[in-house]
User: Fold this.
Amino acid sequence: MASSELRTVTVLAGGISHERDVSLRSGRRVVDSLATHGIEVELRDPDASLLGHLTASRPDVVWPALHGASGEDGALRGLLEALDVPFVGSTAAAARLAWDKPTAKELARRAGVSTPRGITLSHDAFRELGAVGVLAAIADEHPVPVVVKPARGGSAQGVTVVDDIGALPRAMVDAYTYCDDVIVEQKITGTEIAVGVIDTGDGPLALPAVEIVPRQGFYGFEARYNAGETTFFTPARIDAVASESAARAAVAVHEALGLRHLSRVDLIVDAAGTPWFLEVNVLPGLTETSLVPMALESAGYELGMFYAALAEKAVTDHLR
Assistant:
């Protein structure tokens, strides 16, 4: 489908997840970018009328910009597949793999990418086996510093960096607020980067790595979405060998999980230049402070043209 033939795109944004506001900001940015290329774009907040609306309107492409479970756990994508509607982003099956961080970490490890060792613990096990004993076992096997985070979710919500073992119980409680399964993993010291992976038809390609330097603490929710809280460097201030290693790792993760069109792989590059996989996002933020748009612009892409090309790729893949 040539760009002149791509007439209508429905962007889904909002939803009911903890990341609703971020999703709306991403969705509006996509709408504005596509509209500059003469595409008729509808922004829709999904509700009970959505499926009927899509069946009746039959847009050329649906662009899910729903962050959190509503857009990234595979459920919505499965429904779009059932409706036979082309959509931007990974399939339902691939999204489910990426959404579950322990699964994504294991698939990355099998693909030869380093990932911090850790343990995943359900809330039921934490309670039934006795919190005191469980915390002692965790502390013995995974001494601080560690990172505690929900096993599913995004935007660093519920994530705590634990430098003092006394802070571990509170970190576990905070993470369980967002998910019934929690990861406690080794904290890797190094340069935090995000590598976008794109594919508009010639195979997956890593974008320039974006280096992330929070003003204070770590790259949490506030640092992600409030201008001025974080300094970014694109490309990242790592040497050429480490940069190439990170690009290979990001593409390897993208392929190992069977992702398509667009993803963002979060990594830490240690002092030896080794990239450590943290997690992957099948629907990276596209707000004014998000990392993938920074990388795209650094690589010379005009956002509207790139987003249109991605929408066209979604149609092409759907027709295969």
